[in-house]
Amino acid sequence: MSYNKKIKKLTSGQVKELRQAFDLFDADGSGDLSLIELKKALVALGVTVSDREARQMFAAIDLDKNGLIEFHEFAEVIADSYFKKLTRAEIVEAFRRFDHNHDGYIEADELKAILTKLGRNYSNEEIRRMIAQVDEDGNGKICIEGMV
Ligand SMILES: [Ca+2]
Ligand SMILES: [Ca+2]
Ligand SMILES: [Ca+2]
């Protein structure tokens, strides 16, 4: 099995994006993903899977079957769906899942709830800065329209 084939086809920006997602899921910072971390990531993304499904998904990504998902495995398996061009409807649907009070915005506390589910604790200041990066109209919340 040849690894890193797909990584070579990605731009450095895409690799960086995948790396950021990977690091976010890697809650203990060990440099690889355990089954527990994968499950947490799925829960945080609003994906409901049974234990069995989570294990199957894990096995499908863990190409060398060493019980851990390394970054190159993650990139190899995830890249295609990650960079698939999403339709507007798909983006809006994903966004809605995080918009708990359904007001069309992701507020700081909603973003914090997602990250907490991923096992990450960010300060309010860090959350504010993350939002500021994508917050075009400067109202302190992420707008659905701004994302699509
Ligand atoms: Ca880990
Ligand atoms: Ca592995
Ligand atoms: Ca909201």
Describe the structure.
With 148 residues, the protein is mainly α. The protein has 2 domains: 5-82, Recoverin, domain 1 (Orthogonal Bundle); 88-146, Orthogonal Bundle (Recoverin, domain 1). Helix content is 59%, strand content 5%. The protein contains 9 helices and 4 strands. The strands form 2 sheets. It has a two-stranded antiparallel ribbon. Helix 2 (12-25) crosses helix 5 and helix 3 (35-44) runs antiparallel to helix 7 (108-117). The longest helix is centred in the N-terminal third of the chain and has 14 residues, at 12-25. It is globular. It binds calcium ion (3 copies).
Largest sheet descriptor: 2 strands, antiparallel
Shape: globular
Radius of gyration in whole Å, from Cα? Answer: 16 Å
What is the straight-line distance between the termini?
Answer: 37 Å
Structural class, by secondary structure, is mainly alpha
**Proportion of strand residues:** 5-15%
Widest beta sheet: strand line-up: 1-2
Provide a compact summary of the structure.
GO terms for molecular function: calcium ion binding. Residues 13-48, 49-84, 86-121, 122-148 form the EF-hand domain. This protein has 148 residues and is mostly helical.
List keywords for this structure.
mainly alpha; Recoverin, domain 1; 2 domains; EF_hand_dom; globular; 148 residues; 4 strands; 5% strand; 59% helix
Write the layout of secondary structure elements.
Layout: H1 5-9, H2 12-25, E1 32-33, H3 35-44, H4 51-61, E2 69-70, H5 71-82, H6 88-98, E3 105-106, H7 108-117, H8 124-134, E4 142-143, H9 144-147
Antiparallel strand pairs: 1-2, 3-4
Helix pairs in contact: 2-5, 3-7
The structure holds calcium ion (3 copies).
